[in-house]
Amino acid sequence: MSKTSSTEVENAIEVPRTPDNAEKDHDKTAKGTTNQSIVQNPLADIPKDRLLRNIEDFVVEHGLSDDVELFKRGVLAAPNPKDLDTIPELTDRDRQLLKDEVTHRWKHPKALYLTIFMNSIGAAIQGWDQTGSNGANLSYPEAFGISDTGESCMAAGTCARNSWIIGAINSAPYIAITVIACWISDPINNFIGRRGAIFVGAIFSLFGPLGQALSQSWPQILASRILLGIGMGLKEVTVPVFSAENAPADIRGALVMSWGLFVALGIVLGFSANLVVLNVGDLTWRLQLGSALIPAIPLLMGIFFTPESPRWLLKKGRVADAYKSLLRLRLDPLFAARDLYVIHAQLKLEEELAAAAGFSHGNILSRFVELFTVPRNRRATQASGIVMAAQQFCGINIIAFYSSTIFVQAGASAKVALIASWGFGAALLAFAIPAIFTIDLWGRRALLLGTFPHLAWTLLAAGLSFYIPEDSRAHIGLIAFFIYLFVAFYGPGEGPVAFVYSSEVFPLSHREVGMSWAVATNNFWAVIVALTFPPLLQGVGPQATFGLFAGLNLVCFVAIFLFLPETKQRSLEELDVVFNVSTRRHASYQLMEVLPWWIRRVLRTSGGNLPTHFSTSSFYSPGMRLRRPGLVNYRTKPAMLVNVERCGAPVPIHATIVTGATPIAATRPITGESVSLRELEDAKRMVETDDPGSESFAQSGPTTPPITSTNPNAEGMHPVESPGRAASDIEKEVETVEVLAWDETTETGSSVDGICSLNANSKALGYTGSPSGNALLRHLRSVGTFFSNDDDASPHSSLSSPLSLDVTSHPAVELSSPALQNRCLDWYFEHFHKPYPLLHEGLFRAHFSGAVPKPKDGSWPILSNMVLAMGAFCGPEAYSGYDNHFYSQARASFSMDLLQRGSVPLVQALLLMANYLQKHNKINSGFTFLGIAYNMAISMGMHREFSEKSINIFDMELRRRIWWTLYIFDTGARLTLGRPSMLLYGVNIRPPSNLDDWDLAVDMNSLKVSQSYPTTTSSLIWQCKFAEISTMANAKLLERSLPHRSDMLSLDDKISAWFEALPSYFKQTTSYSWFEIPRMVLLWRSQHLRIVILRPFLLDALLTRQPLGSDDSNGAVRRCISAAEECVQSINTFCVGYNSPPRSLAWYATYWVVTAVLVSAICLVYDHQHPSATFWRMQVEETKATLAMLSKLEPLAAHSAELLTRLQAVVPQSSNTHVGQVDESTIMGIADIWNGSWIYDAQLMEDILRPV
Predict the structure, then answer these.
(1) Per residue in 646-667, pLDDT tens?
(2) Which GO terms of type biological process are on file (predicted)?
(3) Is 987 exposed, middle or buried (0-12, 13-18, 19+ CB in 10 A)?
């Protein structure tokens, strides 16, 4: 990778460097994008089994096993809070609670409101101090000889000097906050927690005012106010964060804004105290300054009665304590369990990513530096700095600090000035209350933009009112009126928003130091205002001073409009996405989209809908890891994504960019599925670049909004091409599209099955050799004693599953709905992806959502629809038939022209199509597509291992996955059909590593060490090893009529050795519940191969009338029977005990249980008096029951059960009937069976199934 500055690479998509692109400039941004970013629920669309596994691991690790079911229910509801009825684990009470959480958002435990109340008391101290000094400014300067007005200072020539001293005293707390308190708050918070920091702050807040009241000189007041400032700063940094971390997201803004509300209350109380002690003589100013200690007393007494921040406790590893805290803060344990898991996931992620990136969390200096060097943090620092500085620039504190002075200078008496100031405080409190209800509804940004213009003109009007003659009654009245009006706009806007906004924008890893910086910024400018206002007032007068601050309000308005993102109703973890959007992009969006839209709306022209900038989506990628905690640092590139890490817990994808750009995770960007080198070049050519350093890019052509739950009707939202077209349109297209000549969609009426265990019409089957399932049926058909020779009628039923293009049973709107498509994706990655990781889940979902440009080679409609088809096939019974629709869409997009240009996505699509067709009993079409995929992969060199100089590590690993999946597909199909296996001459690509999707990323410098636990590729790796044995077995079975017994026994020994070499997690049930089906399918596959390679010797023994107990010394027959019995027992037990098996499992289980139970059945046919006959009969009955259960999902199961019933009917029931009664003349020789000489004999299966 080329080296660039952090500014140039922030939020740019990083692309693997190849010889073709290494020297080209990719740090540019595409044109024509619409600004859309996706905000995710942290648990959105995590496959359920993986989510449940993560939950189980979490509760066991932290000693919360007693509540494991509670955690499961709570966490399962988190990704889909609006779709609760689809979560069967939830009870009716759970659903009602979750619904009430939305409709009754203010219903929370007393402990939460106690926490907010105690925090609010801390805020009241800030306001009380401001007004205490405000009133004392009228008397203490004269007491200490530092008055800046009057004849005494003018005579002595000290007015200017004294004004600076007064300014210094008034600003002393804010200097202390800026210089001391903000920076000691981080270690104090880290060491003793939020409550401890507030307690220490309350101590300073108690003794600081007390010291002021007892001061004997102005330096003593100055020192006491510095101590007060330390206490104020500790609270100012900690209280908003404490409130934000304890509050639920939907009312967090309202609760955190209690800071601003109680600052206003403190101002009112302070002014009230000023008035109460106005006439007590020389003690007035002492009581005014000392009264600020009053609210510190209840704060000291009550803060430790509140629960500690669960986020802080989790950060310290105190999970059980955090759970206890949440139990007090949430209305129901269900909410506590849910929130604990989500917070834990985010914290663990940030910690691991920080460690991986080399960030130090042990000292404040390193974290402070990262506020400016890390792009995500830098944007939060910038935004909080703007909103905090704006609070001082708006002019509120010139009134809060000096309102009494202003009114006195306007001609009012001291009493009138204090009364007017009290009115200012009352107005501030009254107008802050509406923000409680608007801050989370309208948003922080909207409140600021809606109020700052009014702050400007009201302050300007107040300044101009000073031109009114002082003897006019309107003089003081208009000044007070416009100041109150100014406060009316400040109260619901900048007043509460500044600290709410700053407390939530930083990632947890930098929250303390970030808030410290924000508070320091606020107080730094408070110092500037406090120091400069008296000289300004004296030097240029109130008119110019007020006019200056009016102008600063307009500057603040522009800065907020351009640089402040909205944060309303986002969880603290979700806000990472907001600040992963570059400053340039955000400002551009405001200028190019929002401003024109607003102008059109004001002028009432065709305003239309404003393009969304942040929207909610159900799109989630589990394969993500961040390079730095809460940030992203990557280079611009159209379809590639950055390295991300998973922490045993689900996390969201968050987009920093627009349609066609790369989604970024909350605390991490998503990984992407690699594409071929040609695709990289194609993607590069697709993108027009023009903006160096920008972080997004677009697809060529019109852009479309992503699929979002909030925008279900968005035009072009469907990632699958043409899913919403009418059936007639699809049929017309099929007629005009060049398709393969072998079209099995027209094959109806012939009994065909994709596993060759129930085949009847051999012409539909093509060549099937001895390893195939129907070889055994041919043997049964040969035994004329058992089946009527008159059973030659045409087929009475069809096992085929026609792939009709008639989709009228599923309306286009329903089939193209995001909800259905997302479910199909979930089922695909939950059930099909585990044993066959053809795709990388992260990038596929990014392509699918439109967040990353789709392949432009014509493969995407096929691949995306096939993934949906296979997902629907793996789904519940209720979704049966949807898969045919998606398959027909994929088939309609296929043309011979595509075969001229190969691509990785097309190979993936062809493999899915081949597997899908086999599962739908279209074995020859599936076999043909498999051959096309194989030859295309060879043409692309996917069978070869390339060095890192030629291809990046991520691409190479994905190619390994695809190649070896192809290999096991091909090996399995050839064994099933009894067709010669492909040879691996010239193949040197190594098997994939035992890694999950989230362990891979396009910018990785090296592969991780293979994991010691089950991963997405575990099953594939051991299937590859097994396929080597399977290939040898198939070759031996096909090369001669009856294979050598020693060869087959040697292969059986190899299978046993392979089994012994399996990791322990394959041999026994583990805590990884998602792994059970891949584990069992692999074991059944091995048992099936044992049956196939040893079955010839069983049939030979039966045909030659050898008693089943007189096997030779090597025990081939015994091994065959034993393998069959084990397989039947395993499948029956697993399927009966499995709750709601997917259809994909039903297909495999049917295949292998039929193969196995036919061994027991045929043994019964030949020797019903064998000692094991009772056990075999029991297995047949159990298998029929299993097949009856599976028949709801797999039609073949019903036909298989019927076959077993037919076989049972011909088993002699009388003890006088013996094996020798078989008609020898009708028995086909074993060599003929294995040579497939009956390949064109018709209607075998129908003969078996017809009534006799």
Answers:
(1) 333 333 323 222 223 323 232 2
(2) DNA-templated transcription; myo-inositol transport; polyol transmembrane transport
(3) middle
